[in-house]
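Re: [ENG-882] Designed sequences occasionally contain unexpected residues at chain ends

Forwarding the minimal case from QA. Structure tokens:
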């Protein structure tokens, strides 16, 4: 009797779990179908990705051994207000382990609690010397934080300065910065770019979206290597028209989506494509005096 009861319970349990097992299989299969659909319906091939803590824990074995292995990876070392990206170090170590060329980008914040008091004091005076000290101080803080957190021995690609809408946004007041903050943004970024150029021997890459670049950064950085985000198009930028900027610039990379799906990454990821004859060699650190140099040197 007890034996029959055990068999009856087993049969009922199996019957109850069957719908859930089928549903789990459907969900898993649906994810594979969506992944397959997205990867085969992109406007351009995916050359590389850029990642931050938002991608969570990446399964690098699946990513790098999968069908769509990125040619390069950029990892964020710091976000708003110089906050350290908690996954940066693990991303760097994993990229080294799987031998994928890695570079680092920093998110530039023009308004920062670390130098807020200095800006208020100097900008309240008419001293141009004070204003210059303020803006260069902003760039210097970003540079020093970058230098402290980034191990040059592990860098294969040029550093990137990420400048976008949030760079001139006051989260405390929930509004965009009023002048003189956005007025000084271009100069601050230029100073930071000069410091990184002195550190790495080459101009850093400037990342921004198309509209923000046109409003705040052009034409100062038109001859820099540019990495431009533009999502509302399915057409590859042509060598004749490029991306339609008011200044005839030629970006080297196009971030064409922030909704990419790759095996091994549990969340959406930014995908990037080389344009205007750029290749992986274009973004590699080339100056041997600066390549693989110890941070203490």
């Amino acid at each position: 009797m007890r034996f029959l009861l055990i068999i009856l319970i087993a049969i009922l349990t199996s019957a109850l779990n069957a719908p859930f097992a089928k549903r789990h299989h459907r969900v898993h299969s649906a994810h594979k179908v969506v992944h397959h659909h997205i990867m085969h319906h992109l406007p351009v091939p995916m050359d590389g990705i850029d990642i931050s803590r938002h991608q969570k824990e990446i399964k690098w074995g699946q990513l790098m051994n999968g069908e769509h292995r990125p040619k390069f990876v950029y990892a964020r070392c710091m976000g708003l207000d110089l906050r350290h990206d908690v996954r940066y170090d693990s991303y760097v170590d994993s990229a080294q382990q799987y031998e994928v060329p890695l570079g680092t980008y920093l998110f530039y914040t023009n308004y920062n609690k670390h130098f807020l008091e200095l800006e208020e004091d100097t900008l309240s005076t008419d001293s141009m010397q004070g204003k210059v000290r303020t803006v260069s101080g902003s760039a210097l803080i970003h540079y020093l934080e970058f230098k402290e957190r980034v191990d040059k021995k592990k860098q294969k690609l040029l550093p990137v300065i990420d400048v976008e809408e949030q760079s001139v946004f006051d989260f405390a007041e929930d509004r965009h910065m009023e002048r003189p903050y956005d007025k000084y943004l271009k100069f601050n970024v230029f100073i930071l770019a000069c410091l990184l150029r002195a550190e790495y021997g080459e101009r850093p890459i400037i990342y921004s979206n198309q509209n923000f670049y046109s409003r705040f950064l052009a034409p100062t950085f038109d001859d820099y290597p540019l990495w431009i985000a533009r999502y509302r198009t399915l057409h590859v930028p042509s060598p004749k028209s490029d991306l339609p900027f008011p200044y005839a610039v030629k970006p080297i990379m196009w971030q064409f989506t922030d909704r990419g799906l790759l095996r091994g990454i549990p969340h959406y990821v930014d995908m990037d494509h080389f344009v205007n004859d750029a290749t992986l060699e274009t973004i590699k650190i080339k100056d041997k005096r600066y390549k693989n140099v110890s941070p203490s040197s």
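QA comment: On inspection the terminal residues look reasonable. The CA atoms of residues 151 and 296 lie 10 Å apart. Proposing we downgrade this to a documentation issue.
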